[in-house]
What does this fold into?
Amino acid sequence: MSTAVLEEKRPETPGRPPVINDFSIHVATANGSGSQSSNNILMRTIFQMGIPVSGKNLFPSNIQGLPTWFTIRASREGFIARRRDIGVLICMNPETAHEDVRTVAPGAAVIYEESLKLDGLRDDVFFYPVPFQKLVLELVHDGKLRRLAINMIYVGVAAWLLGLDMAEVEKAVGKQFKSKAAAVEINMKAIRGGLEWAEKKLTKRDPFRLERMNATAGKIIIEGNAAAAIGCMMAGVQFLSWYPITPSSSLAESLIDYAGRYRLDPETGKPSVSVVQAEDELAALGMVLGAGWAGARAMTTTSGPGISLMSEFTGLGYYAEVPAVIVDVQRVGPSTGLPTRTMQGDIMSTYNLSHGDAKHILLLPGSVQECYSMAIDAFDLAERFQTPVFLMSDLDLGMNNWMADPFPYPDKPLDRGKVLRTKEELEAHVAKFKEFARYRDVDGDGIPYRTLPGFIDVPSAAYFTRGSGHTDRATYTERGDDYKNNMDRLARKFETAKRHVPKPVVSDGTGSRLGLIAYGSSDFAVEEARSLLARKGIKTDYLRLRALPFTPETAAFIAGHDRVYVVDQNRDGQMFDLLRLEVGTDAQKLSSIRHYDGFPLDAETVVEGVEAGEKK
Amino acid sequence: MSSAAEPKAAPTNRTGLTVKEYGGLKSTLCVGCGHDVITRQITQALYEMSIPPYKVSKMSGIGCSSKTTAYFADRGHGFNAVHGRMPAVATGAAMVNPELVSIGVSGDGDTASIGAGQFVHLLRRNVPMVYIVENNGVYGLTKGQFSATADPGSKLKTGVVNDLPAIDLCAMAIELGCGYVARSFSGDMKQLVGLLKGALAHRGTSLLDVISPCVTFNNHDTSTKSYKWAKDHEIPIHEIGFIPYYEEISVDYDPGTTQDVTLHDGSHIRLKKLRADYDATDKRQAMGLLQESQEKQEFLTGLIYVEPTKKDFLELSGVGGDPIVKIPEARLRPEKKALDEIMESLK
It folds into this structure.
């Protein structure tokens, strides 16, 4: 079927203004039923039609059988955060069907398996019963393929209902199945079957439509974890140790995949990155510290429970001053505490992770582009400051699909920091500073020089690495003044870091006395909320944090506004609390907006938070 | 010889260094501690093997034993990790720079209790390193609690009796595929230095479980980890001879009484049998021997098991060529066309 024919036959909705390119499609299936391909095809088709889109997988901690949802948002204005109201529901899971129908917005379209008889549940939505089970028997002869192909039929029905361009559907199918002819043919047959059946049997009554735009040309779709993996690869990572944990595993797996293709040493053909799947997260970070100490760019990737296990080694890394990159793809709490849901839950605990005094550099990527660019920054900062650096992603950013401009090639060379690699470098250092003392601040920035094991055949090059009790010559001490000197230098080093971490992004041109502060994946919802608030006459300035420690811009932003709302995706307002400690008397200007139900933040939550605060 | 002769120059090894140049800081352990004897044998073995000391990477965890890496080879870097977690740190360093000669010193608490998990996985991976357990059956630094290698029935000075079975680190190592497993006694210096040289010549993890009495907390009459008990009960299974790779090897030995094993670097370890028909390359015999020694409460020492051709973790991981840590930056960051290709695939 050609696109042109479809355009002509596109059904019109009588008496109701059409909703074009501005709604969510929610697909409810059972985990393991093979709906992922269909959902990707739906999302990619919309993307290829030039309409800004995002796709989120709201999935259980389970391999097969439990309910799962995929939510696709099309937004002509380019807002790609989760949307609370659902415009189009595709109901494929009998177990959740009743609940799913109850949660959609009035006026929604509901496609469902006919035999579920859902149409009596509500009278304010448009029901489209489809005999999926019957259709799949007719369309697919191979019994083994039917379970998967049934999902393609809903793609076909949605194509009819929403006006998907079939040429783009076919292209998306080709991409999904990597142009394997047999798979493409079977799936296209099921999609066309669904579309043709719908054309004949259904009458469109709902207002939702998709129309071609030109807002996605040249863009990519990628998950944050894959973006971070590409960043790590481009940063020249040399060692990865990881322990499988949702939602970070796909980062390690992507990196292994990309490194296998692009990180074979041009001279030897051998991998230039070594990968170890560790026995646990303690070992993962231990290996990273060993590799970092030996001079390699080393990283691990984990989530909250792993961060807890890495606490002791993180402290050692901080005190022994060993570079390490730790990616924390944040999720909800311990054990069976919603391991597959999103949260900015580790901000406070990670900032001061470990015992004694410890504070760390945290990078806060707010998009897939920043997952990529900050992964590169993380390695540079870790080596520059000789310390563990955390890249704080989250499940929403890491595992969901986001549109982005293609990532630029890094414009700076790798920053390997203060390393004396050769005898000549060591001799020049000694000539300048009298001796090599591993933990001495000779430059006044708190950052000492280091040597690497096995590099320089000179007795004074070696030093002994240990915890917090050492002199500036790395010898053992329990003297109070030695300890204090070292602690003060570490604090000085942290001050220096404030000049090197990514600065916040500030939009303060509105002249409003009202400010918003947010970070990480909240950015999408906050930008949309600002637009919604502006329509209601509430103008807001906005500062998006991109790192801890705070840089001076943040205190200045708070000082320059009367009321500032801090958006956190956690119950306790972790960033809100850190900011209160940071800004002294200005703390009274701060209010906290908190979202913590495990789902990605939506704009309405932010709007409601601001409105509630402004009514007080 | 005249009495006014110049002081004799200290002998040097093949790298032109004296044994003193393999030394480290003065020990701060208790006088008479078995660990200090082991430190001296490590120093001696490194010297005799002519290993450049700056290539030595000294790894340890926490405990009395773990302090000792500061007491030898101070021209090499040392890393005092957290308690029980030295294997991970050693693994990371070894993977990126296999040119390092990695020597780990741990204790029975550090290895058999808090570090049991990491120890197991180190062995399973066959990470190239010498792993020495200075085993005294007690926690010394926290003042004398039982460790997991304490024998059942042994008593603390306070009279507390250990009711739990001892973990046999050698049996565990063999089970997990370790290719060089030895048991020794800090009082048997000749044997220990031979085993250490063999371990340095081996590629992969070598485990040396060395009984090293704690003179302060576990050297009393009712201890099975005391000097007296070990001296009275030690039964070497063979005498250790070591012929480094650079020395001419005599083929003149009786295979009936002597077993000759060629190690990774071409050195030979020659085991003069004191126990008839014991074959140190036979895993079943090795496990049987340990089982038997446990049943009879015998303290058997020597190279219990050796498998010199086992692949180490680097080989198994496909890492090779230049040490990863020495690959220049220009070869670490893929070219722009690689990134462009990836970006194109995501459109």
In short: The domain at 222-404 of chain A is CATH 3.40.50.970 (Rossmann fold). Chain A has 21 helices and 25 strands. Chain A has four domains: 3-209, 222-404, 419-497, 505-615.
